[in-house]
Q: What sequence folds into this?
């Protein structure tokens, strides 16, 4: 949508909000305001010259590689040699979670990149105390918040880093207070304007009750994504940090202090804010866990990180640690969602085969779970925004809020459903078998199609599909042409409206 607006859509409709509303009417993928615009602006930039899914996947790989370079930079700042720093970066890139999200077009990797950039700028501020580094931290923090709202946890990074480093005088440096300016100017207006919409996507409950559920879930998620070895190494880093404070030292070294602050700041929102459960919400924590774990292992082995003597022993210990992490976490990485693009291609091929107006609209109703419907709409938007119009069964045939609360089906019989389909002037229907416990409209339409209760629809093709690790299939139907003699319908789908 953003790409099409910047690529010329503003000529026909200059007002961005009106353009977005009209676009959403054709491709109802994401409700405006639930997610900030940062990732969309970045993704649109690469889609302007290359309007293809492959361009987006290249973008995700480039973002991951950039995050890996920052992991290596932090490794060097911790005193590791070049080889160890590169191994840290490569390990981060080879973790199953990182590889998984280079095959998905989602904002989480960009969030990781922005949080690392913010931490890098604040580390430099601790070193230099310059206004430029403080302001840059605020800029990267604003970029992170405009990518995902969960980045508001970065507000805790400066006080935590200052506390862990023992440089309490930094609190009273006026230049520190330049950091909030970009956030207040760039990110706060968006947060304020969309607060009501964002609240609709919350699960509900107070922070304490939510933490009682989220803490066990995310503890298990960390074990799954980083493994016991990395978390055990992190415990050694915790031991070292506590020991330093116990011995009344001035504080941790700046690099370690910032990484601890980044880790804790990234954990605040998933643990305390009821945004739902997903392993990907922990992605900003993973670089800190790897870096602090490697630092803890190296330090406990008695190697002075900044010394040149025994450098090969240090590199060997870090390499062994990282190899064990990769060995423990290794698992196949699957494409989460498949079949959507093939389904849209088959529909367009069927339209082209039957002829008609090549510029005519093609209206499609898709009925599946949220991920299935979303994947189909996204595939349609990518290949033919001016030709296709898509409707989601969860919106057209039912009523509910963003989280599915207050659900009610919009029909009670095949007759009422048929009236709605006729009113919608659909030409194609894509549906997959509903799992146990699926919502009413999905189960009803599928059953009526199986029983012949909707004879207007003719099955055209079945497309194998995967949703994470669950196998399914998209079945494509086309509406039959009305028989002028009233003796039934032909086997050919109707021409475009």
A:
């Amino acid at each position: 949508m953003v790409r099409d607006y910047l690529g010329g859509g503003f000529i026909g409709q200059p007002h961005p909000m009106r353009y977005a509303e009209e676009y959403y009417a054709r491709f109802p993928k994401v409700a405006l305001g639930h997610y900030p615009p940062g990732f969309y602006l970045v993704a649109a930039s690469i889609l302007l010259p290359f309007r293809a899914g492959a361009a987006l996947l290249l973008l995700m790989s480039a973002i991951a590689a950039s995050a890996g370079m920052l992991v290596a930079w932090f490794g060097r700042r911790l005193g590791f040699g070049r080889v160890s720093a590169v191994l840290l970066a490569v390990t981060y890139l080879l973790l199953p979670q990182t590889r998984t999200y280079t095959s998905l077009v989602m904002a989480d990797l960009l969030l990781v990149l922005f949080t690392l950039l913010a931490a890098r700028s604040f580390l430099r501020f601790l070193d230099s105390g310059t206004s430029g580094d403080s302001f840059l931290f605020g800029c990267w923090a604003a970029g992170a918040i405009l990518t995902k709202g969960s980045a508001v946890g970065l507000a805790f990074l400066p006080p935590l880093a200052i506390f862990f480093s023992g440089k309490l005088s930094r609190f009273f440096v006026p230049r520190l207070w330049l950091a909030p300016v970009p956030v207040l100017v760039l990110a706060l207006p968006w947060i304020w304007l969309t607060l009501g919409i964002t609240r609709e996507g919350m699960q509900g409950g107070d922070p304490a009750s939510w933490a009682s559920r989220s803490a066990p879930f995310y503890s298990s998620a960390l074990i799954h994504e980083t493994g016991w070895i990395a978390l055990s190494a992190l415990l050694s880093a915790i031991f070292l940090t506590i020991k330093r404070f116990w011995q009344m030292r001035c504080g941790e070294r700046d690099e370690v202090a910032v990484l601890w602050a980044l880790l804790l700041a990234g954990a605040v929102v998933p643990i305390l804010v009821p945004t739902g459960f997903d392993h990907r919400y922990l992605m900003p924590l993973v670089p800190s866990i790897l870096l602090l774990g490697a630092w803890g292992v190296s330090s406990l082995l008695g190697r002075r990180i900044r010394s040149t003597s025994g450098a090969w022993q240090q590199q060997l210990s870090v390499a062994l640690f990282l190899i064990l992490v990769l060995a423990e976490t290794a698992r196949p990485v699957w494409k989460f969602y498949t079949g959507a693009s093939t389904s849209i291609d088959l529909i367009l091929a069927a339209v082209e085969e039957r002829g008609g107006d090549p510029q005519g609209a093609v209206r499609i109703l898709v009925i599946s779970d949220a991920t299935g419907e979303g994947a189909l709409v996204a595939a349609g938007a990518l290949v033919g925004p001016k030709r296709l119009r898509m409707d989601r069964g969860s919106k057209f045939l039912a009523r509910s809020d963003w989280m599915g609360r207050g659900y009610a089906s919009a029909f009670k019989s095949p007759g009422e459903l048929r009236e709605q389909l006729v009113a919608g002037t659909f030409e194609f229907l894509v549906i997959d078998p509903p799992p146990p416990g699926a919502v009413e409209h999905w189960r009803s339409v599928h059953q009526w199609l199986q029983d012949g209760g909707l004879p207007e629809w003719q099955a055209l093709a079945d497309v194998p599909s995967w949703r994470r690790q669950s196998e399914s299939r998209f079945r494509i139907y086309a509406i039959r042409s009305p028989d002028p003699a009233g003796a039934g319908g032909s086997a050919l789908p109707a021409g475009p409206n």
